[in-house]
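Schema walkthrough. Field components (list of strings):
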Amino acid sequence: MSISQHIVVVGNGMVGNHFVEEVVKLRESTDTRITVICGEPNLAYDRVHLSEFFGGKTAADLAMITQEQYDEWNVEVLTSTLATNIDTESKTVTTNTDKTISYDHLVMATGSYAFVPPIPGHEQPHCLVYRTLEDLVDIQESASQSKVGVVVGGGLLGLEAANALQNLGLQTHVVEFAPQLMGVQLDEAGGRVLRSKIEELGVQVHTGCATQIIEAGETCRYRMNFADGRYLETDMILFSAGIRPYDQLGRDAEMAVGERGGIAIDASCKTSAPDVYAIGECAALNNFCYGLVAPGYSMAKVAARHILQTDIENAEFAGADMSTKLKLLGVEVGSIGDAHGKTEGALAYIYENQPEGVYKKIVISEDKTTLLGAVLVGDTSEYDTLLQYMLNSIALEDSPEALILPMADNKPGLGADALPETAVICSCHNVTKGDIISSIDEGACSVGDVKTCTKAATGCGGCAALLKSVVDADLEGRGVEVSKDICEHFAYSRQELYDIIKVNEIRTFEGLLESHGKGELGCEICKPAVGSILASVWNDYVLEPVHIPLQDTNDTYLANMQKDGTYSVVPRIPGGEITPEKLIVIGEVAKKYNLYTKITGGQRIDLFGARIDQLPGIWEELIAAGMETGHAYGKSLRTVKSCVGKTWCRYGVQDSVGMAIFLENRYKGLRAPHKIKFAVSGCTRECAEAQSKDIGVIAVDNGWNLYVCGNGGMKPRHGDLFATDLDDETLVKYIDRVLMFYVKTADRLQRTSVWMDNLEGGLDYLKEVVIEDSLGFGETLESQMDNVVETYQCEWKTTIGNPDSMKRFRQFVNSKKTDTNIQFVDERGQIRPATEAEKLSEIDIKEVQ
Amino acid sequence: MSQQEKQWRPVCNVEDLINDSGVCVLINEDTEDEQQIALFCIGENKLFAVSNYDPFGKANVLYRGIVGSLGGRYVVASPLYKQHFDLESGQCTEDESVSIEAYDVRVNGNSVEMCW
Ligand SMILES: Cc1cc2nc3c(=O)[nH]c(=O)nc-3n(C[C@H](O)[C@H](O)[C@H](O)COP(=O)(O)OP(=O)(O)OC[C@H]3O[C@@H](n4cnc5c(N)ncnc54)[C@H](O)[C@@H]3O)c2cc1C
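Field assembly_structure (string):
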């Protein structure tokens, strides 16, 4: 229903934001106005993946929404603003900035705060919590001045925090009041197995420890004294002793609250105050606050429907399943349903493998027909199956222990077909198997499509494998084969074409089209793709007559076409290092041909406005001065950017320029599915911005750290740390392997970042292939790279030396005239292309001489 | 267009063509009707001639595009923004309202001739 109304949302966390998205989706017009009071300086971000901040993700990476998007939706947001009072009679909210805002409907989405036990001394500077982006910045800062760190609290979040401290290089302790770790999710035996695994990883666990006071330390900044007389010295303390709902606003406004806090709601998420709703972690249904994001999202959907009076029949929040699967400090942990076997008459089966640190338990009903719960530590491969058994009350077979026993024959795995349509596949977005099937009915035809339509597997991502099997099974059932064909001429992916060319020793496009394609000619998609594969497999000169028709214009004319049909020219300047003599030559050439000059982001010089017929002349002069092509036109290595390094810089620890020049010369000319950029920084200050490159090298005291698969551009991505402390030889070996593996297996126009995200197993898999040589072809990759390096030629040099190739560089085959449509005007002392209007007015236009 | 009578006129030699690729010729040189024509040679003997001017990119570049076949039709893809033009009719395959001039072209002995 379309009612003109004003909705005010207090809190812009994950759930508050989800609510706004739901309303925007459901509302019929912008008569439904929304104002959001956002306590944090950042708009909603992905708190679930907060820890990835320490892995290099930025606030922007974690953001779930942008100001622009809210503007577009006409949603007003007040950031860094707290709601301080609610008047439920006059229906207004007051803020700490002294604004009073009236509402028709108010939604409380204030979430929780980290509980800090009132231990004397807890208010000191390096005593922190783990909840917001700002907390993490503080933790990073504090950790940089600390050697030892303690996490108070051995629950799920505490262990996640401990993982972060350990990754920050601290000697890490976990102090837990209860006798075991993760008491909510695990039983005592599961907690014990988890503990020993975590201790193996170097984190010290102290259970049954009640901290009494935090005072000045002797060897470290602080000392924590425990009730039993023991103590622990540490430089920083992270409190992760549980969360508490932000319900004070509600209490002040005399709303009903739950027994253990939280603003009380009913199944439509209404509070006791008229027209006020509460959703997410601040809300309590039947005295229970849900500390996970999925139930919060369900509440957001329910509240949005009730407020808009849309589709309210099914809009009910009846509680949620709290099962979880996660990896803590590298240890897989899963907890399903009634993990503690509290249901009356419940029976358990237990499997424990001490040598490998695996513990599994299932809890079943008294009549042995249904699964009630499970605990999994060290191996969660059965989690999905067990969860589906529990959620859908699927009848157990005889000997249900087979579900968790490793060697059991005919282990009853649940195929996608066995699941009922009501089975929830993605609990973050509450997507059922039925939803997935209807999205396929409506035209989705790949896992990617289904993800876009249903949002399945876009939350925590834990259901990705299950989603894929459901989608694949359904598509297979419909007789659909998923198409990876690159175009109408070849029913193959780029990778398959690569293998075909290699194995069958095919050397021409025609040969490939004849043996493996259809149609007569190919097109602008398959031709350059095959051209690039032929170039990387055989490293032929790209202008061999048989290859010419395959190339994009940029490859054909070895320059980058600009909007007016002229080209830009970029000589290679390896590592950004250039002699004054060469700089002068570039300047003179630019002057002679009246070219526009600009410094590029890759530390070289771009010369614009060259007509096709001028290219050979320009290059003749550049080559005579000892320069080479920069391949700016190719899907190939562009530049290796560098900072000046230890040769000059006070902080540098290695010769970054020398390494950059070496790398650029090694990989120049390599043809790849897309352009490739490198950078080398001389120290961790990272002036060369190596982490935004496909291959990033950062100097450290003991050698080089290698980052892979970053990029700038439209969708920036930080590179992932791939290996540390490498010597020169190993660095080159790894880069050889990574690049060659990319060249061989990536799709057409796939940058390294997307390629890696699509590799099954991602970074870990790439490390296995490259570092551990798990596929056993590491040396082959290296020798293939060596071959590319040995057969390198400067394409411009070869072209200049060949009169036949030179013939191509003319506008007309029957006239010496040049293209009169190319016209320039003067701007800031250089040329620029004339606009259409300027061309018509013919004032001040200079034609190129 | 000029009032002169349509007839076959030589524009270049067979050696000037590049197989499965394009070259450009200037016709009516130094007259008011001066025009750039993109000539494509597919296989041994299939010749096509269309205007060299890309109406989308507003530049004389079509001869530098990749030629191909799309669903049985011969096309050239503009090197600027990749629209396709049918080489026989000049019709743009992405936008019905746009087409470019197409001309008859043939080989006569060693000479390539166009009719205009
Ligand atoms: C490190 C970490 C890991 C996690 N991992 C998982 C996981 O793996 N799976 C999972 O399901 N959940 C996980 N969670 C929990 C999940 O993040 C929360 O359930 C979810 O963020 C709750 O969303 P919310 O919007 O209710 O609350 P929040 O995200 O806390 O948002 C509430 C917002 O309201 C603001 N606010 C409070 N009071 C006011 C006021 N008076 N005026 C204005 N603004 C106010 C707060 O500052 C906050 O920004 C994790 C949490 C953390 C901290």
